[in-house]
Automatic annotation (TrEMBL):
Organism: Gossypium lobatum
Keywords: Membrane, Transmembrane, Transmembrane helix
Record carries keyword Transmembrane: yes
InterPro entries assigned to the protein according to its UniProt record, in alphabetical order: CAT_C
Cationic amino acid transporter C-terminal domain sequence ranges: 69-102
Transmembrane segments: 23-45, 65-97
Name used for this protein in its record: Cationic amino acid transporter C-terminal domain-containing protein
Amino acid sequence: MLICVGAFILTFSASNLWFSSLIRFTLCGAGGLLLLSGLVILTCIDQDDERHNFGHAGDTADQEFIIILLLFEIVRVAAWVRVSVWLMIGVLIYTFYGRRHSSLLNAIYVPKAHVDEIYRSSGATL
């Protein structure tokens, strides 16, 4: 709770310019102290080492297979089809429209070594 309240006070007071600077700095300091104290308390809490051994110590490939299997079980096939179709539509739009109508299509690329020379010779009218 200290972290959430501290972060809220810190961001709220730092982003509101209608506070006077003294009030803003005071609230930022108080929010920062709350945030820091919450982080220190979380660091000092003795945590159970068993949290690292959740599940089994199996192979990573087994775990990835289980995740993919869960994704296919949870998300319906129709949703995968819709995502795939929209992804292909986006790729087609990018390929056939975006690349031909890009504002950078006719851009002139100059090596960095020549930029200062071009700027000086143009009379600084850029």
